[in-house]
Amino acid sequence: MHVQKHPLSGPHSSTAFELTSLHFGTPGAGKKVYIQASLHADEVPGMLVAQFLRKRLAALEAAGQIAGEIILVPAANPIGLAQAIHGAAFGRFDLTTGVNFNRNYKHVFDDLKKSLDGLLGQDAQANVRLIREHARASIAEWRPSTDADTLKKALMTMAIDADIVLDLHCDNEAVMHIYAGTPLADAVAPLSAIMGAHALLLAYQAGGEPFDEACSRLWWDLERHFEGKYPIPPACLSTTVELRGEMEVSYDLAEKDAAGLLRFLALSGVLLDDGSGAGAGAATPLPVPLCEATPLEGVEPLYAPHAGVLVYTRDLGERVAPGDAIADLIDPVSGETTVLRAGVAGIFFARSAHRHVLRGMNVGKVAGAKAYRAGDLLSQ
Fold first, then answer.
1. Which parts of the chain register pLDDT below 70?
2. CA 20 to 30 Å from 94, out of 26, 138, 228, 230?
3. pTM (2 decimals)?
4. CB neighbourhood size of 303 (10 A)
């Protein structure tokens, strides 16, 4: 294992932040994998999963079982980890700028559609190599003006040319679910089955330029821009893995999740052995998927119509029909109760961790099978 340190703070700064990355295997010897945990720094489960990954990857490297390069960033947001408001961790937004740490990543397509003009050919793998070269150059030219943007540049520098990108997050309260680009549906399906995801949510463009999409969307945007004249495959399987809810931090879950991620990497040919004693797992059948892929445009967010005490009447992971009750919202003064109901058929996969909410707060998400929304599709 090779450890790298990435300074984030500018000169004369009142604080000094540093990002740490762990490097396993050999660059150029096979596929490149990038894994990061807790970009939203108050989403803790991924950081514990990373501890199990660190140990297993070190052992696999020592045994010569890594066929390529794996970069692990066990705590992807040292800036957010240092933030708190009145004793409560606050790692989703940068307190200096107010910007979500998982938004506003550089979409290198805007540079590449110009720099690649006239250079692509009919060899798909040659195109992939060329596109990655230009993507690295585009990120290198990024001139950040804040510590948060410097962090984003450091993360993208490591990930922009990877074959596989796994961004480990969690929701407020949720069952396991996964976000990915629509062209990656087949490639990400085994990961969904292995991890036991209850929702696999796909979109060509989710809005807001999140990290996973900044690594993957450039491929199908380029293919569309060049009108299919050149073979440009979706060469980066980039996905956000939502490791259930914020409070589900346990050794058992973290070890299970790390084992699932390693099994996926073995299935992808990055590991010759996933460390489980079952070789690369090729002979072991995949688990039966718990869900089919559905469009992110089909997710129904549920909002509180007024303030009140929130009492959920449905369990996470349940399938609901239009009109089914999800929760009661009780006015603590009048005692009047409003029943919150699903508007679409689907899986109730996420909800608020708060039990008193204000008007307009998001209190639940249902993954529906039919697209009906547009615009920015991710919660802020």
1. 275-283
2. 138
3. 0.97
4. 12
